[in-house]
Specification:
six-stranded parallel sheet, 2 domains, alpha/beta, five-stranded mixed sheet, 13 strands, Rossmann fold, 41% helix, globular, binds nicotinamide-adenine-dinucleotide, 18% strand
């Protein structure tokens, strides 16, 4: 397998393959760039079909973290780790311990956090063997103390970003009466929907979890639609909060929303779909800019910034400034917003 010539290799500083025979650990830690600080990024556990797929995923995700943290104004670089295996059947205490040792060997160049297939509890276990783990400390929230889970901060940032996009595209400050379609009402999507409901927006939601849908109907007055129907709704905002690659050749012709702004990672199936959105007159809030609330939250916790919850919230609200800068420059340069976000990130982390 060639690695250096892979398109996703993209100048990675360091890629480490880790194995531990006893626990069965097979993991890859990718450190993309540490110019702005240590590489912080989630640890994903997934039953990859083959090793090449795992390599591609970790390289792509770690690079994405460099861009996300740079635009969010954090003193962090980008990294990610993947563990090859099924989190339901292969994740044992011994495997987590072996992973913690592998993370520790990098001496803090990489900081792990929870991701798909790993949990806050897993990170808390790893924390016993390495300090280079984030997202593990209980902290105050609107609803009392909560675990290290960054989802509420991600939802807050996404809400802020939707407000900015609405101001830019529709020229209005209030969300009252705004029509929003939320795809996926899990940890982030539900909290986002609650904030939108409180701001007076009307909601359309889809999910594959019937209990969550019922709750959204009852608590938020949301209208439930079939997953495939979510794209073609006559709404102002389409907020993807479930899966990646949902802006693609199939969904694009159906979209009637004038704004795409949601928390899901990697929403564009391919970069060209960002240009296609622009050409259709749809304003796209680049995913890694609008969903940065979570990484900002994890950063504040890990850096031990004890300026209180207000400082964290103020930093998350700067997603508004970042998006306004991106939208203004995209307008001036007649370029897709995603391309402009990448350019701003590169200016920051290469400086
Ligand atoms: P989650 O697993 O809690 O929620 C995802 C929801 O989507 C679930 O309710 C699931 O049932 C639903 N879903 C799955 N397939 C679906 C389909 N085909 N159609 C409609 N709904 C479907 O995850 P989350 O933590 O809420 O994250 C949501 C998205 O935001 C993910 O893409 C994640 O990568 C991204 N994100 C999350 C955070 C965070 O802090 N949690 C931070 C940045 C980005």
């Amino acid at each position: 397998m060639s690695v250096f010539t892979q398109i996703d290799f993209a100048d990675h500083e360091q890629v480490v393959f880790c194995s531990d025979e006893k626990s069965g650990l097979k993991a890859i830690i990718a450190v993309h760039n540490t110019h702005l600080g240590p590489a912080l990024g989630g640890c994903r556990m997934w039953p990859y079909a083959n090793e090449a797929e795992a390599v591609r995923d970790v390289l792509r995700l770690s690079r994405g973290m460099t861009y996300k943290s740079a635009v969010a104004g954090l003193k962090l670089g980008g990294g990610k780790s993947v563990v090859i295996g099924n989190p339901r059947t292969d994740k044992t205490p011994a495997l987590l311990d072996a992973l913690a040792v592998a993370v520790d060997r990098l001496g803090g160049r990489y900081i792990a956090a929870e991701d798909s297939g790993t949990s806050v509890a897993d990170m808390q276990r790893m924390r016993r063997l390495t300090p280079h783990v984030a997202g593990v400390v209980d902290k105050p929230s609107d609803e009392g103390m909560r675990s290290g889970d960054p989802s509420p901060s991600t939802a807050l940032g996404t809400f802020v970003g939707i407000r900015t996009a609405v101001k830019e595209r529709l020229g209005r400050d209030s969300l009252d009466g705004l029509r929003v379609a939320v795809q996926g009402i899990g940890n982030v999507g539900y909290d986002l929907a609650r904030r939108l409901h409180e701001a007076g927006a009307g909601l359309w939601v889809c999910d594959i979890d019937a209990a969550a849908l019922k709750q959204a109907e009852q608590e938020l007055g949301a209208r439930v639609v079939e997953p495939e129907a979510i794209y073609g709704l006559d709404v102002d905002v389409f907020a993807p909060c479930a899966l990646g690659a949902v802006i693609n050749d199939r969904s694009l012709p159906q979209l009637k929303a004038s704004i795409v702004a949601g928390a899901a990672n990697n929403q564009l199936a391919e970069p060209r779909h960002g240009r296609a959105l622009m050409e259709k007159g749809i304003l796209y809030a680049p995913d890694y800019v609008i969903n940065a609330g979570g990484i900002i939250d994890v950063y504040y916790e890990h850096a031990g910034i004890d300026a209180g919850r207000d400082a964290l919230i103020r930093h998350i609200e700067r997603i508004d400034d970042n998006l306004r800068e991106i939208f203004a420059r995209a307008r001036r340069e007649e370029r897709p917003t995603g391309e402009v976000a990448d350019a701003i990130a590169e200016e920051r982390f290469r400086r």
